[in-house]
Design goal:
The protein is an alpha+beta fold. 38% of the residues lie in helices and 29% in strands. The strands form three sheets. Strands 1, 2, 8, 9, 10 and 11 form a six-stranded antiparallel sheet that branches. Strands 7-6-3-4-5-12 form a six-stranded mixed sheet, covered by helices on one side. Strands 13-14 form a two-stranded antiparallel ribbon. A hairpin with a 6-residue loop joins strand 3 and strand 4 (77-82). The radius of gyration is 22 Å and the shape is elongated.
Length: 301
């Protein structure tokens, strides 16, 4: 199945549901960053969570940054996801591997450790909205659901999953179900929904069983007035880095530092943390930057 996002509502609009399949983009991230099994699961879950969170934003160009900073050996996670369906991200220690946890699953919580979840929502104008909550498990899904309840006051259930086999990622994605204010007062409805979500054995087993997102929605909300939006949104791993941006960053270093790079290294190399792309700037590129700085200085003077 292609990577995609599908939205739905239920209970006369009182329940909002969003599902994502992120198998291919998670595999691309694994290959780009040469991720271990547990690092793949951690980053894959966080990218799916970022896309689910960004899906509720309204303005074109809106993005959400999700940063997980724990004291575990993974060294942190940073994900940038957009309303447009693009996502990118990386982890601090891509090679860390741990034994399975007590449930026999990849120990993402142990890799992340104790710490904080930072969320920044950029709606495209004004100051971005930021919030911080303490991690409650390090397993990502629990932590993001905790953030949605405490910081955005929206009762939410979040199921995330990444299955990594010997050949790579074979299933990844997630499901976000939120009870909106108009339905939050219906305690029986909320209890029923909580029970349904709790009964799920996970998200990747559903994908591996051949379930589509509409089928998953129907199993969960089919008797609650489910309405699935007809259009699906394609998702992809995408980074906006470029050679021109790298040159812009190098220019900020100033003439003396650029000249030192020419003398000592005959150029400069920069690697994008988000996507792993490597950019080479030779001495001619750096000399041109120095000339640009000198021109700008003479004009402003």
């Amino acid at each position: 199945m292609a990577d995609q996002l599908i939205r739905a509502t239920a209970a006369d609009g009182g329940i909002r549901a969003v599902g994502v399949i992120t198998t291919r983009l998670t595999e691309e991230a694994r290959q780009r960053h040469q991720l271990s099994y547990v690092a793949t699961a951690a980053l894959g879950r966080t990218m799916a969570a970022g896309l689910l969170m960004a899906s509720s934003m309204k303005r074109v160009g809106s993005r959400v940054n999700v940063r997980v900073k724990g004291d575990g050996p993974l060294g942190g996670i940073l994900v940038d996801a957009g309303l447009d369906g693009t996502v990118r991200g990386y982890v601090g220690n891509s090679q860390i591997e741990l034994p399975p946890n007590a449930k026999g699953k990849l120990d993402v919580g142990g890799a992340v450790g104790n710490g904080y979840l930072y969320v920044v929502r950029d709606i495209g104008y004004g100051y971005p909205y930021s919030s911080t909550v303490e991690l409650i498990s390090g397993e990502i899904g629990d932590d993001v659901a905790h953030y949605l309840v405490t910081s955005e006051q929206t009762p939410s259930a979040l199921v995330l999953g990444v299955f990594v086999g010997a050949t790579g990622v074979t299933a990844a994605g997630g499901l976000l179900v939120q009870v909106l204010p108009k339905a939050a007062r219906d305690e029986a409805l909320v209890a029923k929904l909580e029970s349904r979500v709790a009964s799920l054995s996970g998200f990747t087993p559903l994908l591996q069983a051949g379930k589509t997102l509409p089928e998953i929605f129907n199993d969960l909300l089919g008797d609650m007035g489910l309405s699935i939006f007809p259009e699906s949104q394609m998702l992809r791993f995408h980074c906006g880095c470029s050679f021109d941006r790298v040159l812009g960053a190098l220019k900020i270093l100033g003439e003396a530092e650029l000249q030192d790079m020419i003398v000592k290294d005959d150029g400069a190399e920069a690697t994008c943390d988000f996507c792993g792309s490597v950019y080479q700037a030779n001495s001619e590129h750096l000399s041109q930057l120095i000339m640009d700085l000198q021109t700008e200085s003479s004009v402003s003077g």
